[in-house]
Amino acid sequence: MNNLEQRLRLSELSQLTRRHFLSKCTSGLGAMWMAGMGQNAFGASTKLIKDPSHPLAPDIPQLPGKAKRVIYLHMAGAPSQHELFDYKPELEKLDGKECPKEFLEGKQFAFIQGIPKMLGPQFPFKQHGESGAWISDRLPHLATMADDICFIKSMHTDQFNHGPAQLLVHTGTPIPGGASIGSWATYGLGSENQNLPGFIVLTSGGKNPDAGKSVWGSGYLPSVYQGVQCRSEGEPVLYLKNPEGVTRDMRRRSLDTMDRLNQKIAQETGDPETVTRIAQYEMAYRMQMHATDAFDLKQEDAATHAMYATEPGKESFANNCLLARRLAERGVRFIQLFDWGWDSHGTGKDTALNEGFTDLCRRSDQPIAALLKDLKRRGMLEDTLVVWGGEFGRTPMRENRGGAEMKFVGRDHNPGGFTMWMAGGGVKAGTSYGETDPIGYEAIKDKVSVHDLHATMLHLLGYNHEKFTFPFQGVGQRLTNITKTGTKVVKGVLA
Amino acid sequence: MRYFTTDLNTIITKSILAAICLSLPGIAESEVRFNRDIRPIFLKHCTACHGGVKEAGGISLIFRERLLIEGESGNIAVVPGKPEESELVRRIHSKDPDEVMPKPKHGPPLAKEEIAMLENWISQGAKWEEHWAFVPPMETKVSGLKDEAWVSQPLDRFVLKGIEDAGLKPSPEAGAAEWLRRVSFDLTGLPPTVKDVEALEADWENDDKKARENTVDKLLASTAYGERWASVWLDLARYADTFGFEKDPHRDIWPWRDWVIRSLNADMPYDQFTIEQLAGDLLPDPTPDQILATAFQRNSQTNTEGGTDDEEFRVAAVIDRVATTWTTWQATTFGCVQCHSHPYDPIAHDEFFEFMDFYNQSEDSDLNYEFPKLKLAGEEFVKLERETRTLREELDAEGHEISEVDWANMQDMALNPQFGTLEADDSGLIISEGTLRRGVVHKVSGLTGDFDAMKISIYPDSHDPKDWPEMGVMVTDFKMEKISTDGKRTPVPMGEIISDYLVGPSDPMSAFAQQPGGEKFKRFIGPGGHGSGGAGFGEYPRLTGPRWFVLLPEKRVVLGEGERVEVSLKQGANANESQGTYLRKFRVEVAKDDRYAALRSDPERAEKWQRVMSNRDRLAAMKGPEVPVMRDRMKSGQRDTRVFARGNRMTKEHTVKADVPDLLKQGYEGGENGNRLDLARWLVSGENPLTSRVMVNRLWGQLFGIGIVESAEDFGTSGTMPSNLALLDHLALRFQGQHNWSTKKALREIVLSSAYRQTSSTTPALIERDPKNQLVARGPRNRLTAEMVRDQVLAVSGLLSSKMFGSPVYPPQPDGVWNSVYNGAKWNESKGEDRYRRGIYTYLKRTSGFPGFLTFDAPSRDVCTARRIVSNTPLQALVTMNDPAHIEAAIAFAGKIRERGGSIGEQLGYAYLAATQIHPDTETVAELTALYEDLKKEDYTKSANLGPDPALTLTANTILNLDATLSR
Predict the structure, then answer these.
(1) Domain boundary among B129, B155, B171
(2) CA A418 distance to own-chain centroid
(3) Phi/psi of residue A51, nearest 5 degrees
(4) Which of A306, B88, B98, B526 is the most buried (most CB within 10 A)?
(5) Separation in Å, CA A176 to CA A163, A179, A198, B314
(6) B325 near B682, Cβ under 8 Å?
(7) What does the DSSP 8-state code read for residue A235?
(8) Is A57 within the bounds of a domain?
(9) pLDDT of residue A247
(10) Residue-averaged pLDDT of chain B
């Protein structure tokens, strides 16, 4: 248990004791929760105030933030910028030629050996929308939304293996133990819906991200801020349903008894954890109803299903996109989607640019475009920040694993340059920010580090990344990594 | 009370300072102490830039000598005794924004008191103190206690001193039932029965002290003790039943888990427990158990993902072992030293790699079959295996004795590549280039004259040892033929191979298994076989340097005029699951020497070979699970351990030898040639300042919910300060001294202490004064651990199986939780009593943990975990309310309640006592009865199976969800 939680619970306990236990409150817990929320509502200070037994209560950020919630679409494995957004005619010309020595000197690759060949973009590009954004023919649906998107083409990272790079892009550090951006967001802002987890994770592609569950861990933040992995099939949250035949009313009665007996214990022992437990059981009770409802895709009409290209009854990225919208509507603060399989090395069909990669584009293009459209038509895009990206980029060279030309076409890992995009939530729509060199290898103009991206996302949520800290190991830890200097909010992407 | 982020630092600093003052009673206020007064200022304001990572301006505040030197400014940072000449003082006072420290953009200026403190410190001579944890523990004499009568164990004096110094008094003693619940869970992980409660309460009346002692002795003697404490050790050991990483296949390592349980139950002293796990294999004539113990370090992960670099993940496993050792025994964050000197603690970059060398000599190398393994087939297996290994080494050594043989190149050498090119230079060095394919055969022939032996030397591509190891080289199949002048070919039967040294899963002799009549050599093939294993000669999966092999035909090869010899070298092995292991640079030479002839005809040698072969057959025929264990490469085949520049294994620097950091050198006796055994002995030498403290802190943390050092994983300067250093040191000295490393004795004293026996019932005032209960002015009250939550519900409902040990079991878990995409593993729900085993036996898959455990804060076991951070979430409520396993238990519990008989009120009162060990008052009984009567009115005809009395089942489920049931 950390200092913060303890202290907060403590203060709450003394109030609760006074207000409820000593007065032998018998009206259930509802009143207590309301009291908690009431207190919080006038926390108009710019300082972070947390209600101990209500840690996810909605809170006001340090600064006026334009984004109220985030939907983060992480394409685990790192999608190729050369085949999607970063059009380089120069690279097209070099296709098939041996890679010039100067591109290799001092470089480290995951798999490329010796002198690889350059690989031109595998698919045709066209400009789209009034903004004239370059988008390849793999993403025809997203192309129709070009004017709502802000592309950052000059992303770069310092990690070139999946695990560490995914940790860096989600927690600000390549080593397990950092707090994920979703945890920071819910720690700061709480959640607008107390009946659902504030930070929900949905996965597709049949696997969790390479870095495992640490990418949505709370690290040094209180564990209550960790992401909750939900499922798009079966029970959305494990053990959500009462045993068959046990009605909601029966559960209520059982809980009322539990609450009263627990209050008695809390009074006798004075243990603040007991008070927290009472609150958690109440939340579980509400979650049973609200989570079931939120995850019920049947409530959507046929047109919506068609728009998202959902696959009812399956674990699919499309379903997750639609769920993301439903959860956003319900006030979930941070919705994180992971789609696995974007590691296009070309070692096999699944990872070939013209095979597996193309399939993934096809499977994700329509749902992502639908999500943006859907948010927009509901007026939610302006305060929902949508982020798309991988953990690093891919090489402009063709991978030659084992030093040989491979049967399929693929690219190796490249930390030097990649594209991410953002939309909504205070981002300048219809823009492209930053540039890579003429072959899309290294970010050269208006470079944006992973930490810059984090600082920018926090800014949009209303936080100064340098002042949004948590004490751990003797220092004020922050998402943008205390050991890094020079991190800046990317002003050029702000509306 | 409100909590503001801006106040955090102040609060933290104050609490640290308070803690230090508390732990160092009676120190004169005027004397500046480095650890107490100065280091916190450095840590807070300075070390981010002037530490082990960045030494801005050439100044580091981690090592004293780095502070007393001229910085890049040309001025000396600290001149002892002369603040006015010290650059540090000038800079903190400076008004110039370019000069002032800390730089305004890095942090706020120092407070007046802090500046005064630094000046005083320099005036008083800038005396340095090593961080408390690196200084040996010291027994403090405690006097002037107000309430001497409260003390019942020696440790109580130290606790009471802390309580009284804080102006507080201990809480009243807990009643028998409260103490019994606490001590039962803490020692055995299980609740006491109603009978236990009643019996103790009766005994308590007569002689409470004796009653307690009897209870504790009984609990410590119970086999459940080992099962409870093993889970603590398994978190540190990152034990799981799978390999980890992407495919995460099954690993048979549960016999080691059983070893831990057995050793804990036998109260194996902690020094022995340490030595056997870290280096049991290096003890003289180790027993199977001592070798099994070393599986501790084989709990690191193995990557079987296609195309992953075996060397990369071998090194990752080695680094993981280093980090695990440091966290488990030294509570020191060592991982950061991989890339640079320690940011806070005085440990240098090279020292990481010196330490890594202890583990870098292990033979395991990320192979999919996890070689080397121990077959659990009793003493006999281990003896035979050892004898075989010794014999093999002797056989090679006899060959080595034949030195100064005249090796000659073949004349008129002809090279016949199947793929790519094969060319020899003037010296006879053969170089293979081009794109090869697995299974490629290089053919080399020439005129040799009669010969007794053929030497094949294998060289790495690179001349620079920094580039080693390289991709492995394996000749999986060797054949020799004579070719007469008319082209007729006659096979030359091969006899044996003398190797420079032996390493890897197969014996080099296996290279002869596929020659005509090579049947007898099949027994030399190791577990991986020829293709993805290391059968043949060479080195697999990586070539660590030049190697040589002398191949002896069965008899002298006698050649007629013009008759040639041809050897076929087939390379059929794959490393990294996908890459060939080809001969790239090699040499083939022959020699005629009677000494080889003598060797061949030596009957004693023949006898040894016979024994090796029959031993191998017997070993292969023995049955038993195979467990990965530690085994070092032979001395002659040791790996070069080199410093990685900036922690990157691709850029290696100079070599280093196994050693421990200078900071903690006391008690190390490994000298120049230290190995894991020296490492293990150093940890438990009694001179190491950390080992005992870390262990007693762990025990304390388990019993009180928080360690004396809260950051149980980090005793370094970045960790938290001990809340009561004198207590910690007392416990540490007693554990390694009087208790002779007996964990049970240490625990016995703690649970019988007055400190532990206090009631946990308390007042808001005391909670506010000491929220984490670090002063221990009240008894501990903690939530049950993940395993206890499960075990309790099974115990209370009477379902719990007492079956110990064996393969992990599969209690019910929801469908679809295991996302085993790349392996066919299934969660085959256990039947019979295996369904109700203690949590410690539940199957633990790294990439998909048991949901009920993860929700209650059990770690994924990816890395060494020194403490579980306890959370309190709605998802936990859903588990205990709705998990079908909990419902099943509630049905059984209802059955037991019914059996109790009497009125429903009596039954429910009994149930409440059984689940919480709290005697229910009438109000509680009335509440439960009302619930039962209410639920009884419902119609259950359409419900799931809720047992014969569904209302009672649901009431039982309610009781099992109470806070008092989930806490200890």
Answers:
(1) B129
(2) 18
(3) -90, 120
(4) B88
(5) 9, 9, 22, 19
(6) no
(7) -
(8) no
(9) 93
(10) 90
The Cα-based distances of B196 to A32, B202, B203, B893, B964 in angstroms read 39, 10, 11, 18, 18
Of the pLDDT bands very low, low, confident and very high (cuts 50, 70, 90), residue B516 is confident
DSSP B552: E
Same domain, B478 and B543: yes
Domain containing B75: what range? 31-129
Length of chain A: 495
C-alpha dihedral, A322 to A327 to A333 to A334, nearest 10°: -40
The amino acid occupying position B718 is: S
- Please provide the DSSP assignment of B756-814 as one string: TTB-S---HHHHHH-TT-SS-SS----BPPHHHHHHHHHHHTT-------SS-B-----
pTM of the model: 0.84
Residue A203 CB: number of other CB atoms within 10 A? 24
Domain carrying residue A254: 1-35+248-294
pLDDT higher than 80, residue A20: no
Q: Are A243 and B884 in contact (CB under 8 A)?
A: yes
- Interface size A-B, in CB pairs within 8 Å, comes to 235
Indicate whether B553 and B656 sit together in one domain.
Answer: no
Does residue A344 sit within a domain?
yes
Count of domains observed in chain A: 2
Closest chain A CA to residue B766: A270
Note whether A377 and A458 are same-domain residues.
Answer: yes
User: Rounded to the nearest 5 degrees, what angle is found at the Cα of A6, between the Cα atoms of A5 and A8?
Assistant: 65
CA B3 distance to own-chain centroid: 38
In chain B, the number of structural domains is 4
How far is the C-alpha of B276 from the C-alpha of B279, rounded, in Å?
5
Decide: helix, strand or coil at residue A394. Answer: strand
Min Cα–Cα distance to chain B from A340, Å? 12
- A4 to chain B, minimum CA–CA distance in Å? 8
Q: Are A386 and A372 a contacting pair, CB within 8 Å? A: yes
pLDDT at B385 over 60: yes
Contacts of A8 in chain B (CB under 8 A): 3
In chain A, residues with a C-beta closer than 8 Å to the C-beta of B335 are 175
**Is residue A90 in some structural domain?**
yes
Amino acid at B461: D
Residues 6+ apart with CB under 8 A from B415: B422, B423, B424, B430, B442, B443, B444
Question: Which chain B residues are Cβ-neighbours of A231 within 8 angstroms?
Answer: 816
Q: Let me know whether B123 and B272 are in one domain.
A: no
The CA dihedral of B487, B488, B493, B497, to the nearest 10 degrees, is 0
Query: What pLDDT, on a 0 to 100 scale, did the predictor assign at position B341?
Result: 67
Give how far A240 is from chain B: nearest CA, Å: 6
Q: The domain that contains A406 carries what CATH number?
A: 3.40.720
Is some CB atom of chain A closer than 8 A to the CB atom of B933? Answer: no
3-state secondary structure of B612: helix
Nearest CA in chain B to A163: B245
Decide which of B659, B683, B707 is a domain's last residue. Answer: B683
| A257 and A373 fall within a common domain | no
CA atoms of A167 and A215, how far apart (whole Å): 5
Residue B724 included in any domain: no
Query: What's the token pair of residue B392?
Result: 């093999």
Q: Same domain for B941 and B851?
A: yes
- The pair of structure tokens assigned to A51 is 């209600």
Same domain as A375, residue A281: no
pLDDT band at B47 (very low <50, low <70, confident <90, very high): confident
Residue holding tokens 């010039």?
A100
